Amino acid sequence: MKSKAKANAVVMEEQYKKDCKNLSPTALAKKYKLSYDSWRSVKQRAKKSGIYLDQKLGNFNDFLFWLGPRKAKDFTLDRIDPKGSYSPENCRWANKQTQTLNRTNSIKIQFNDEQLPLKIVAARLGVSPDVLYKRKSQGWTDREIVSGKRSGATLAKVQDWPWPDDREMEWERVYREEKGEDETREAFLWRISKRMLDIVAGQMNYFREREEKLTPEFELKHATAVRLFRYAKERIEARRNWRERLFSDLL
H/E element holding 152? Predict the structure, then answer.
């Protein structure tokens, strides 16, 4: 029975790889709709949050070839390292249980003067890891996550945030989830905008080396990256000038 299932898996693998080579993009998207929907979601997430999307996953044909078909509706794309990129090496199809285990092992929370994995903190509190993860994703502080009560400071727009005006809340949530140790908001904005610009610059060289015409999708991506980089630079320079004036007034 096991050998038969294994044989079927091999046949399926050979089939989708053949389809990647032989079917048109429209036919491929229609046949592997679940996988196609996931691919579109990944591209949107990468674009909005600045997470690097490997060129190998840039179009659906390559995405399917590298990662294979989505097994079922309860499977979604999971980054093995939640802080890593979308790449063949860091992505897999996983169900909710596997993804919960992955993210709760990687996310750490301050608990009784210790930095512990979210899963362990959940076990000590006697609650589901999903409960703590939801609080974390909503911007709760570690103290609030552990106590289960908000201190009254909800995730509301703060005038002093450096984020672009149209996506303050989204940027703030990503910042709280992915910031480095002691990394300020301005430093985070600069790092992400610089990374996005470096990525599109590398992709631009890829097009030029092959003398290929830029796609409308890439031109939009490039314009967005340049605009964000300029915005970040202006914000940081404005903040620096403000601090210099403040320091001067204090002297």
Answer: none
